[in-house]
Fold this protein.
Amino acid sequence: MTSDDLAITRLLSNYAGGDAAAADQLMPLIYAELHGIASALMRRERSDHTWQPTLLVHDAFLRMVGNNASWRSRQHFFAVAAHAMRRLLVDHARATHAQKRGGGSERVELHPELLASEPSDDGSIDIEALDLALSQLAQLDERQARVVELRFFAGLDVTETAEVLGVSPATVKRDWHFARRWLQREIQRDRS
């Protein structure tokens, strides 16, 4: 763990303990990484999306701070942040879809690591379909769904994911492998 990681974990703990000033010290340390996660998520969105990574970071941070959550570590914080960003994008997609009264859904470019085979012809999937498939996976195996969320949305590596979940890296690799295959099958089934 680097000194920045330790500083972030300490500030997160201080903030959770009621130190409001810790949030001001925390933001400069975490902003670049949060923006990187948001940028990666936005690159998977359609090119004419109305949101920018900065807006996604700010909305996710406000949502997280408003929930007064306590974060165990830097990895846990970024996992929660990625989940908040995912929820915001899905909510936005649903709102856009509702406004269009059934017209096309939000599209997200499929990251090649998520599925074992080729994505659709246009290289994208419906973010609502991905969210639905992840929700269904969570009902069957919550840990596998968390692995996907941490690896795909938060960008954590195998070791970081294992640390957040409290399992071995081998378990994360196995869950990642099975979850990708399961999601591939479910998303392709929904397309048919």
The chain has one domain: 3-191.
